[in-house]
Model the fold of this input.
Amino acid sequence: MDGKSTGPLASPPYSVAQTAPHQILVCKACKHKGEDCKPGFALLKKLRAAIASAGLGDEFEVSGTACLAGCVPAHGEPCVVGWRATGKATWLFGDIDPDQPLDELIEFARLYAAREDSWMSGKALPQHLCDATLARIPAAMIVTREGAIQ
Done:
Protein backbone atom coordinates (compact mmCIF):
# COMPACT_ATOMS: atom_id res chain seq x y z
CA MET A 1 0.00 0.00 0.00
CA ASP A 2 1.19 3.51 -0.70
CA GLY A 3 -0.32 4.98 2.49
CA LYS A 4 -2.76 7.21 0.59
CA SER A 5 -6.33 7.33 1.83
CA THR A 6 -8.85 5.90 -0.59
CA GLY A 7 -11.80 7.48 1.21
CA PRO A 8 -14.24 5.96 3.66
CA LEU A 9 -14.82 2.27 3.47
CA ALA A 10 -18.33 0.91 3.25
CA SER A 11 -19.52 -1.12 6.21
CA PRO A 12 -18.92 -4.81 5.64
CA PRO A 13 -22.09 -6.84 4.98
CA TYR A 14 -21.79 -8.51 8.39
CA SER A 15 -21.55 -5.30 10.43
CA VAL A 16 -24.55 -4.56 12.63
CA ALA A 17 -24.80 -1.28 14.53
CA GLN A 18 -25.83 -1.88 18.12
CA THR A 19 -28.52 0.42 19.54
CA ALA A 20 -29.32 -1.44 22.79
CA PRO A 21 -27.04 -2.61 25.63
CA HIS A 22 -27.26 -6.22 24.39
CA GLN A 23 -27.60 -7.67 20.94
CA ILE A 24 -28.99 -10.93 19.65
CA LEU A 25 -27.85 -11.83 16.14
CA VAL A 26 -29.82 -14.27 14.00
CA CYS A 27 -28.18 -15.77 10.92
CA LYS A 28 -30.20 -14.91 7.82
CA ALA A 29 -27.88 -15.96 5.00
CA CYS A 30 -27.22 -19.61 4.16
CA LYS A 31 -23.62 -20.32 3.16
CA HIS A 32 -24.64 -23.80 2.01
CA LYS A 33 -27.28 -22.59 -0.41
CA GLY A 34 -25.89 -19.16 -1.26
CA GLU A 35 -29.24 -17.48 -0.58
CA ASP A 36 -31.35 -15.96 2.16
CA CYS A 37 -32.21 -18.29 5.02
CA LYS A 38 -36.01 -18.48 5.27
CA PRO A 39 -35.94 -20.22 8.68
CA GLY A 40 -33.55 -17.49 9.90
CA PHE A 41 -35.93 -14.76 8.80
CA ALA A 42 -38.82 -16.59 10.50
CA LEU A 43 -36.82 -16.93 13.73
CA LEU A 44 -35.77 -13.28 13.57
CA LYS A 45 -39.38 -12.13 13.37
CA LYS A 46 -40.57 -14.46 16.16
CA LEU A 47 -37.63 -13.65 18.43
CA ARG A 48 -38.13 -9.88 18.06
CA ALA A 49 -41.77 -10.31 19.12
CA ALA A 50 -40.87 -12.66 21.99
CA ILE A 51 -38.18 -10.29 23.35
CA ALA A 52 -40.67 -7.40 23.24
CA SER A 53 -43.41 -9.50 24.89
CA ALA A 54 -40.99 -10.55 27.64
CA GLY A 55 -40.34 -6.89 28.48
CA LEU A 56 -36.74 -7.10 27.28
CA GLY A 57 -37.06 -4.72 24.33
CA ASP A 58 -35.05 -1.97 26.02
CA GLU A 59 -32.24 -4.39 26.91
CA PHE A 60 -31.93 -6.26 23.60
CA GLU A 61 -31.78 -5.44 19.95
CA VAL A 62 -32.55 -8.45 17.76
CA SER A 63 -30.85 -8.17 14.37
CA GLY A 64 -30.35 -10.32 11.33
CA THR A 65 -26.79 -10.76 10.17
CA ALA A 66 -24.74 -12.49 7.50
CA CYS A 67 -23.83 -16.15 7.88
CA LEU A 68 -22.59 -17.03 11.37
CA ALA A 69 -21.00 -20.23 9.98
CA GLY A 70 -22.38 -22.51 12.68
CA CYS A 71 -25.12 -24.50 11.01
CA VAL A 72 -24.97 -28.14 10.01
CA PRO A 73 -27.01 -28.77 6.86
CA ALA A 74 -27.36 -32.47 7.72
CA HIS A 75 -29.65 -31.40 10.59
CA GLY A 76 -32.16 -29.93 8.17
CA GLU A 77 -32.42 -26.16 8.37
CA PRO A 78 -31.43 -25.19 11.91
CA CYS A 79 -30.72 -21.59 12.80
CA VAL A 80 -27.70 -20.05 14.48
CA VAL A 81 -28.16 -17.31 17.09
CA GLY A 82 -25.52 -15.23 18.87
CA TRP A 83 -25.55 -12.96 21.92
CA ARG A 84 -23.07 -10.12 22.36
CA ALA A 85 -22.55 -6.95 24.38
CA THR A 86 -19.68 -4.67 25.27
CA GLY A 87 -17.61 -6.17 28.08
CA LYS A 88 -19.48 -9.48 28.02
CA ALA A 89 -18.78 -12.93 26.67
CA THR A 90 -20.24 -13.71 23.26
CA TRP A 91 -22.38 -16.84 23.03
CA LEU A 92 -23.23 -18.73 19.84
CA PHE A 93 -25.93 -21.40 19.67
CA GLY A 94 -26.80 -23.65 16.75
CA ASP A 95 -29.55 -26.07 15.85
CA ILE A 96 -32.25 -23.61 16.88
CA ASP A 97 -35.58 -24.60 15.32
CA PRO A 98 -37.73 -21.56 14.51
CA ASP A 99 -40.85 -23.71 14.82
CA GLN A 100 -40.17 -24.58 18.46
CA PRO A 101 -41.15 -22.41 21.45
CA LEU A 102 -38.65 -19.65 22.20
CA ASP A 103 -38.90 -19.95 26.01
CA GLU A 104 -35.28 -21.07 26.46
CA LEU A 105 -33.96 -18.25 24.27
CA ILE A 106 -35.88 -15.75 26.40
CA GLU A 107 -34.64 -17.42 29.58
CA PHE A 108 -31.06 -17.17 28.31
CA ALA A 109 -31.57 -13.50 27.41
CA ARG A 110 -32.57 -12.82 31.03
CA LEU A 111 -29.50 -14.69 32.31
CA TYR A 112 -27.23 -12.89 29.86
CA ALA A 113 -28.51 -9.44 30.79
CA ALA A 114 -28.31 -10.14 34.54
CA ARG A 115 -24.66 -11.22 34.61
CA GLU A 116 -21.97 -8.57 34.63
CA ASP A 117 -19.72 -10.45 32.19
CA SER A 118 -22.27 -13.05 30.95
CA TRP A 119 -19.80 -15.83 31.74
CA MET A 120 -21.52 -18.95 33.02
CA SER A 121 -21.10 -22.69 32.92
CA GLY A 122 -23.16 -24.93 30.70
CA LYS A 123 -25.01 -26.13 33.79
CA ALA A 124 -26.53 -22.65 34.19
CA LEU A 125 -27.99 -22.71 30.67
CA PRO A 126 -31.46 -23.88 29.69
CA GLN A 127 -31.16 -27.58 28.74
CA HIS A 128 -31.54 -27.32 24.96
CA LEU A 129 -29.09 -24.40 24.79
CA CYS A 130 -26.56 -26.36 26.83
CA ASP A 131 -26.69 -29.01 24.11
CA ALA A 132 -26.74 -26.41 21.29
CA THR A 133 -23.76 -24.31 22.44
CA LEU A 134 -21.30 -23.72 19.61
CA ALA A 135 -19.07 -21.17 21.32
CA ARG A 136 -18.60 -19.09 24.46
CA ILE A 137 -16.04 -16.41 23.68
CA PRO A 138 -14.58 -14.24 26.46
CA ALA A 139 -15.06 -10.50 26.15
CA ALA A 140 -12.21 -8.91 24.22
CA MET A 141 -9.82 -6.70 26.10
CA ILE A 142 -7.74 -4.81 23.58
CA VAL A 143 -4.58 -3.06 24.75
CA THR A 144 -3.01 -0.31 22.68
CA ARG A 145 -0.10 2.03 23.36
CA GLU A 146 -2.65 4.46 24.77
CA GLY A 147 -3.98 1.88 27.22
CA ALA A 148 -6.70 -0.71 27.55
CA ILE A 149 -9.94 -0.34 25.63
CA GLN A 150 -12.95 -2.59 25.60
